[in-house]
Specification:
The protein has about 200 residues and is mostly helical. Helices cover about 70% and strands about 0% of the residues.
Length: about 200
Amino acid sequence: MNRMDDINIDDFLAAWDTTIHGDLMVRVAMLMAGKDGWPTKNQVVSVLCDIVEPTLAYVPASEHRPTHAIKLLRRWCTGAEISPAEIKIAGDKACEASNAIYDRHMLLGEVAVAEAAKDAAVSAAKTAWAVEETDVGEASYWAQEAVNHVTVAEAMAAFASAADAGGSVFEAYDTTYMLVKNWQADLVRRDLYMGDAR
């Protein structure tokens, strides 16, 4: 399935300087990666790693698969010869880890923590899938999904912290959600130069 049909590149570029949708910014950049005036795929994936990596703090220290996937992708970004098959395996293992992490926390009744950790691990998996996918529409979709999972992971972590502190959990979720979206968009604007494309 090609997932390019619902993106109008020209319209989105016109809003590049003001949008808070870092997920769509990454998706557009991945769609156009390597074309004249656009960043390379390596540059887009490097930004994705910057977005995903902080969230891996929610993954238990004993679980190395999501972190391994991001480390592998960072090596790929700098030119290391890593096969698409190796990258896919790392992504699949990060996804497997997400389910194990989720189940572990759910057994302890830690619903919000389970969601945060799972989304963090899934973001690593989907970043890897964006790299190994040969269909550009699918790759851009996985890139967007990776960013979305980061946003949810951070918001759920805030939800869990507020619950522990006896605070307003939904306010914590909503506030963090918007803060993270703004941070993501600012990061993409800073690190992916789009002047030539526009």
